[in-house]
Amino acid sequence: MAGKSILLVADPYLRVPPPTYGGVERIVDILAEGLAKRGWDVTLACHPESTCRVKILPLPSLELTSKGRSVNAVKLLVHSIRHRYDIVHTSAHFDLTALMWPLSQKIIQTFHALPDREPFAKRLRFIPRRNLWFTTVGKHMVPALEHIAPTTAIHNAIKVTEFTFQGGVKPDAPLVFLGRIEEIKGTHTAIRIAKECGRKLVIAGNRSTNPDIDRFFMEKVEPHLSEQITYIGPVGAAEKNKLLGEAAAFLMPIEWDEPFGLVMVEALACGTPVIAIARGAVPEIVEDGVTGVCCNSTEEMIQAVKSIGILSRQACRKTAENLFSPETMVDNYEKFYDKVLS
Predict the structure, then answer these.
(1) How far is the C-alpha of 268 from the C-alpha of 244, rounded, in Å?
(2) Taking the complete model, does pTM exceed 0.85, yes or no?
(3) Which of 117, 148, 160, 219 has its CA 20 to 30 A from that of 134?
């Protein structure tokens, strides 16, 4: 595929790669640099201060208003892509990119989460009969989209070498919860599991700036904080590496269909097994009984934590290396691009 040109599009809210938070932007960075190393002519439309090592097409800063997203960004994209690239692949929100769908370019729209039905339905009028393909980050998302356009699941990746493998942990190693602190992520359930199992729990992640959502933290998390249950706030790359690596298990007691869940792969890269509710992409990432346990209830998670000693930390690392490496993800996208181009 060397010599082919591609325009990658990211939402211009965050830099690519992001300095801290920004899972989608991290994936776009891995893909852009991976394709460039393989000889692709890569242009990335994104936040103007991005440092990804490819050609940057700076998009104007976007602000959400009652009228939607910036018209200027859409105009710039439409003008830029007309007849200039072999493929346009966007990971940006469909509100920004749907106006490009009817163009003659071959366009791929990646969904990192399933779209809200009502706003998405309004954009379907832009979908042509040709030249549009969808990808999703989880196989579980495909049925919701494949009747609209040809849809393929391609898993995300992490830079596995940036995570330190820990072959063993202390007998009193804590459990870890890392994610947004809100009810659908199940922080309160992680607390219950730790208490039932008599284990320490370290909670890390962002609290919401929305007072209605943050009420969950104040009512269902904060009252339980103690020497056993601690909250350390958001963590950077080095802190996350240490936190996950020194954990007995990573807890994922979700109450929604997780689109992918990069943090599960990050835990596996550190050698840490994942104990999770089997919703969304969880069964696609966690090999039940090998790299973690896919559970159907809180009670099952409690029992799984009590028997984590039977899980192999080496198997966790191998899974991250073999299935979720940058090379694997770029391979899968290249095969998909070949299918689109042919």
Answers:
(1) 9
(2) yes
(3) 160
